[in-house]
Amino acid sequence: MAPTLSTAQLSNPAEVTEFVVNKGNGVKGLSETGLRALPDQYIQPFEERLINKFVNETDEAIPVIDMSNPDESKVAEAICNAAEKWGFFQVINHGVPLEVLDNVKAATHRFFNLPVEEKSKFTKENSLSTNVRFGTSFSPRAEKALEWKDYLSLFFVSEAEAEQYWPDVCRNEALEYMNKSKTMVRKLLEYLGKNLNVKELDETKESLFMGSIRVNLNYYPVCPNPDLTVGVGRHSDVSSLTILLQDQIGGLHVRSLSSGNWVHVPPVPGSFVINIGDAMQILSNGRYKSVEHRVLANGNNNRISVPIFVNPKPESVIGPLPEVTANGEEPIYRDIVYSDYVRYFFKKAHDGKKTVDFAKI
Ligand SMILES: COc1cc(/C=C/C(=O)SCCNC(=O)CCNC(=O)[C@H](O)C(C)(C)COP(=O)(O)OP(=O)(O)OC[C@H]2O[C@@H](n3cnc4c(N)ncnc43)[C@H](O)[C@@H]2OP(=O)(O)O)ccc1O
Ligand SMILES: O=C(O)CCC(=O)C(=O)O
Ligand SMILES: [Fe+2]
């Protein structure tokens, strides 16, 4: 049965927070009450709202790259070029079976359709593992305005740990999705690395670029006043690389490095959206760019997305690679323990590209 909140409760911010954040109903539960107006704590400051007028004025588009192209050097060139100029691109014919993508999307719906008592077993307070977390918004305690999104975040430690702690309804599908994507991820990292004079993706480099993996299942329910809020606010990812599977609804926007315009990332069936994260920006000494992006709330449709955050190991020290600075190029970032960087990211609300300043010299 759909959850209920009285009109009086809906206009009381403390009651809304209790229902959404503390009781684990999420914004999905809130949306399902059939509320007509957006509760005050979701109203974003004017400058953070994505006004369609500005978005639609541009005909810019992020590159779509066909990875089945037999001319590998052309593919590598297109990927490195996109990583430098856009920080974002889509890939098609990437080799990950479409069935795996369909399965993880279905599993995402299955998880979020569980009753609140089941999902709440995975909130920070209740989860039996710190590597599994069901939550809402991004950092509710630090945010002045909340974001219209629920998520399940799964940090991979081992198959055995996942077997024990990840939710049954999505575990196998999330693992298969992560495992089947690794060949493509290695290929992308090989191309990006070669362009930085990294000869091969040996064990050390693999651990640095892809030493830890987190899969998030994101759910953006229908929103009563989508123009007043956001699904996800402006941010760059702290990963090395993010592999994102989105459904057919759309709403992801990327800030163009050349024009500053917000550019929509149209859903392309069977594709992945790939973006450079802060760790890669730091390792490449700014050659590759992690780029601001954000997600619109939607007044008509529920939306899901499934990012794989490919990261350094938490204990890795990241800084500009020696291969990049060997030619005398000045490092613009200091060496930093990756988990310190990620903790700093999680401690604050989304704030565009500001996290990376933490690592600047
Ligand atoms: C865009 O909207 C998002 C994004 C995300 C997630 C994005 C990513 O995960 S990007 C990849 C991040 N990299 C890694 O996870 C690999 C490296 N991991 C680590 O170094 C550590 O696991 C750690 C992340 C630093 C956490 O270590 P630890 O200090 O042992 O753990 P906690 O005390 O539990 O966390 C500290 C603090 O961080 C927040 N937090 C932790 N995990 C998450 C999570 N998965 N999602 C959201 N927030 C998280 C949390 O606020 C903790 O503070 P508390 O005050 O709650 O104690 C996720 C969600 C989005 O909306
Ligand atoms: O849902 C999306 O399209 C993007 C989500 C995102 O940016 C993230 O989870 O970091
Ligand atoms: Fe992101």
Automatic annotation (TrEMBL):
<keyword id="KW-0408">Iron</keyword>
<dbReference type="GO" id="GO:0046872">
    <property type="term" value="F:metal ion binding"/>
</dbReference>
<feature type="domain" description="Fe2OG dioxygenase">
    <location>
        <begin position="204"/>
        <end position="312"/>
    </location>
</feature>
<protein>
    <recommendedName>
        <fullName>Fe2OG dioxygenase domain-containing protein</fullName>
    </recommendedName>
</protein>
<keyword id="KW-0223">Dioxygenase</keyword>
<keyword id="KW-0479">Metal-binding</keyword>
<dbReference type="InterPro" id="IPR026992">
    <property type="entry name" value="DIOX_N"/>
</dbReference>
<dbReference type="InterPro" id="IPR050295">
    <property type="entry name" value="Plant_2OG-oxidoreductases"/>
</dbReference>
<dbReference type="InterPro" id="IPR005123">
    <property type="entry name" value="Oxoglu/Fe-dep_dioxygenase_dom"/>
</dbReference>
<dbReference type="InterPro" id="IPR044861">
    <property type="entry name" value="IPNS-like_FE2OG_OXY"/>
</dbReference>
<dbReference type="Pfam" id="PF03171">
    <property type="entry name" value="2OG-FeII_Oxy"/>
</dbReference>
<dbReference type="GO" id="GO:0009805">
    <property type="term" value="P:coumarin biosynthetic process"/>
</dbReference>
<dbReference type="InterPro" id="IPR027443">
    <property type="entry name" value="IPNS-like_sf"/>
</dbReference>
<dbReference type="GO" id="GO:0051213">
    <property type="term" value="F:dioxygenase activity"/>
</dbReference>
<keyword id="KW-0560">Oxidoreductase</keyword>
<dbReference type="Pfam" id="PF14226">
    <property type="entry name" value="DIOX_N"/>
</dbReference>
<comment type="similarity">
    <text>Belongs to the iron/ascorbate-dependent oxidoreductase family.</text>
</comment>
